[in-house]
Amino acid sequence: MSAVTSSLSKRQENDLLSLFSHARLHLLYKASIHGFTAAAFHGRCDLQGPTIIVAYNAAGFVFGAYTSKDYTQSGQAVIDGAAFLYSISAERNKPLRVGSISGKHAFTDGGPGPNFGALVFLHEDKPAVQSNPGDCFNFQEAEMHGNDLALTEFEVYRVEDLLEKPWRNIQWTSERKQQLMTSIQNYLPEIKAVNQARVLLVGPVGAGKSSFFNSINSAFRGNMTCQAITGTARTSVTTQYRAYTIKTGRRGGTLPLILCDTMGLEENADSGLNVDDIVSIFKGHMKDRYQFSSCSSILEDSPGYQKHVTLNDTIHCMAYVIDTCKVSLLSQKMLDKLTAIRKRANQLGIPQILLMTKVDEACPLVAKDLKNVYRSVYIQEKARQLSDSLGIPLSYVLPVKNYSEELELDQNTDILLFMVLEQMLNYADSYFENQITDDQDGSNGPDCAWAEEELLKSQYNVVGWL
Ligand SMILES: Nc1nc2c(ncn2[C@@H]2O[C@H](COP(=O)(O)OP(=O)(O)O)[C@@H](O)[C@H]2O)c(=O)[nH]1
Ligand SMILES: [Mg+2]
């Protein structure tokens, strides 16, 4: 099959690129090959991140629309401050660029062709545009498309753009990696009676929770490991609660950190990990290797229920694990579940962070070079979107790439993974600080005196964001 090629001339392509800072265009869809239909458009362009529509007419105009948001067929009106319409023609030196009318949405994210109000593409599944200037965008029709509404070609490109400056500064050096490793290995919980910080991983099925543990384990071991089972099934391949310790090197010591892996969350109330089980884990009642059941939660008389708990057993930090590629697909039901979990964690004063996994799958520029992770416009947009929909400050959102198909460790992957661990330990310390009351050194402190009543007393004694 011959490769699908762009119909843009070099000059037209340069004009288009001049509308961005460091963008590259990746052709997703070409109507003359894939069909002038809404279904063909959505099949190739939904969930692709920032995209630009390029429509061609016989009058010589190349015109269209850019949006930084995903097409998802949600039926919603999408607000996008970065969206614009544009037109390029031989007579003009610079492309015409039209932003949306203040307060108006950019497009309606429906099942038909892309609908930017003033320009509706693939109108009635035909090679045609409907032109309604004044509807969300204002322009002169002669300037936008020369009043020629029949299309000779219609293409959509993914816009892969990098920020001039990264939104977080990372030192991608072996010294930094070593420094992070040393600081994690030397970590001591603020409370002497606690030996290891206990971090819980929670998130939808397939988000990369088990892979995160495997990746951390591999990075500290020095070779690839696959202790936790991972996979791509629709329901969770993790069915047991696991509290993993991590070793440094083959015969090395144990890290002062336990990563607790759970079954995945599912949308429906009666499937996947349930919120009551998460609360039992928070409080330290669930023993390692407890077999989850979707239909019932752990009870005091269940096998695997730990009645007497100390501060060593409770969760000191929780990490939500979310697949970056699926941020736009998080359903209201899943968001509600996450909000319910957040509420319970807040009540118990458990600090929380959010890991955005699969940044390599989400952005080709990041797949090519992980150092682009904080320069990718797409990743930044997804981080903002997650922060907004879950009400989490952006500073608690950490992009990460797990090892998935590699055979060798990679310095940059390790640095991102270790940065996440460092934050987890910092937040666990915030939890411990909140537990320290009278006894500063912990000798008669929380270790023995601590009980559920104490924990309940510290409700609303909040650490981090709420
Ligand atoms: N490319 C890529 N794949 C990942 C990443 N994290 C996880 N995966 C893959 O996603 C799938 C689900 O991962 P898994 O750890 O089982 O998810 P869990 O259900 O949250 O435990 C597996 O096939 C992993 O190899 C990542 O950061 N990048
Ligand atoms: Mg798993």
From TrEMBL:
InterPro entries from the UniProt entry: GTP-bd, P-loop_NTPase, TLDc_dom
PROSITE patterns: TLDC
Any GO BP annotation: immune response
Domain TLDc: 2-160
Stored CDD domains: Ras_like_GTPase
Molecular function in Gene Ontology: GTP binding
Family membership noted in the UniProt record: Belongs to the IFI44 family.
Name used for this protein in its record: Interferon induced protein 44c2
Protein's organism: Poecilia latipinna (sailfin molly)
